[in-house]
Amino acid sequence: MDIRQALHSDHFKTLDTQGLRDKMLVTKIMVPGQLSLTYSHVDRIIVGGAVPTDSPLTLSGGKELGVDYFLERREMGVINIGAPGRITVDGETVELGTHHGLYIPKESRDVSFESLDATKPARFYINSTPAHVRYQLRHIRPEDASPTTLGDPETGNVRTINKYLHTDVLDTCQLSMGLTQLEPGSMWNTMPCHTHERRMEVYFYFDLSEDDVVFHLCGEPQETRHIVVANEQAVIHPSWSIHCGFGTRRYTFIWGMCGENLTYDDMDFIASKELR
Ligand SMILES: O=C[C@H](O)[C@@H](O)CC(=O)C(=O)O
Ligand SMILES: [Zn+2]
C-alpha cells in the first residue's frame, strides 16, 4: 500500500506543484487486473480501486494493518463506476450495475471483486475507515441514494448530489460517501466552497475524457492552491482544506468523508470573496 503522511497547513504553503501532487493526489486507482490501495494517515482512510479482469480480486493485507484480516477493525464503501460486476462478502454475492454501491461492514472476512465480462470490467472505487461496530451489509442502488439537485446555469454548477453512505440511507460507523454528477454545461462543484474541521474528505473525479482535466482547489481558505486532476484520480484533504473544482468539461465525482460526525450538512461555508 502507498502510505501518505498527514499534511500540516504550514507545510502545505511551502510546497511546489510536484510537492503538492506527491502529498495530496492519488493517481494509481483503477489499474486493470489489480486492487490498488493508498493509506492516508489523515483519519486513517484507505482510498483505492479494484478493476477485476480474468480472475476475481481478493481483499488481503491484514498484516499491513496489524490485524488478521483487512476488515477486522474497518468498514468499507464501494461504488462501481464501470460495467456490471459482483462483490462476494463471506459467501453472499451482490451484483453491482454501473453506479451501484455496497457497504461492507466490519468483521467481513472474505471479500472478492469480479467483473461480469472480463473485456468490459467493473471499476470499483473503494473507501475504508476504522470502525468499531458491525453494521449490515447493504446494496445501494442509485435510486436509493437520496438525490438532491442544486446549483444554477448562471453559476455553471447544476449538479445532483447522490448520498450513498448517509444517515438517511444506512448505518455506518464514520464513513460517508456519495456521487455528484454535473449537468452538461456545468463545470463547478462545491462553489461557494466550505471546510469541515470535523471531517476529512477525499474527492475522486471520473467521466472525464483523455483531453479534459479538473482544476481542483485546496488549501486553507486564505491560502489556496490548485491541482490539475485527470480522469480517475483522487485528492486527499486534511480537514483544514477547502475542496472544490472546475472542469474543462462536465464530470462526475465521488466524495468520501470520515471523522467526528456523520452530519452531511455540518459545513462552514466560505464566501467566494473571502478566498485568497
Ligand atoms: O462535504 C460535502 C462534500 O464536499 C460534497 O458532497 C459536495 C458536493 O458534492 C457538491 O457540492 O457538489
Ligand atoms: Zn466537503
Describe this structure in words.
The protein has a single domain (2-274), classed as Jelly Rolls, CATH 2.60.120.10. It is built from 2 helices and 24 strands. The protein has helices at residues 9-14, 17-24; strands at 2-4, 25-26, 35-40, 46-50, 57-58, 74-80, 85-89, 92-96, 101-104, 111-115, 124-130, 138-140, 148-150, 159-165, 176-182, 188-189, 194-195, 199-206, 214-220, 223-229, 233-237, 242-247, 252-259, 268-269. The strands form 5 sheets. The chain has a 7-stranded mixed sheet with strand order 1-3-4-11-6-9-12, with no helix packed on it. The longest helix has 8 residues, at 17-24. The chain binds 4-deoxy-L-threo-hex-5-ulosuronic acid and zinc ion (ZN).
What small molecules does the structure contain?
A: 4-deoxy-L-threo-hex-5-ulosuronic acid, zinc ion
Strand content is 35-45%
CATH class: Mainly Beta
Q: What is the CA-atom radius of gyration, in angstroms?
A: 18 Å
Which word captures the global form?
A: globular
Query: How many beta-strand segments?
Result: 24
Helix proportion:
under 10%
Number of domains: 1
Q: What is the fold named in CATH at topology level?
A: Jelly Rolls
What pattern of helices and strands is seen along the backbone? EHHEEEEEEEEEEEEEEEEEEEEEEE
Strand order of the largest sheet: 1-3-4-11-6-9-12
User: What count of helical segments does DSSP give?
Assistant: 2
What is the averaged pLDDT score?
Answer: 97
At the fourth level of CATH, the homologous superfamily is Jelly Rolls
* Uncertain spans: none
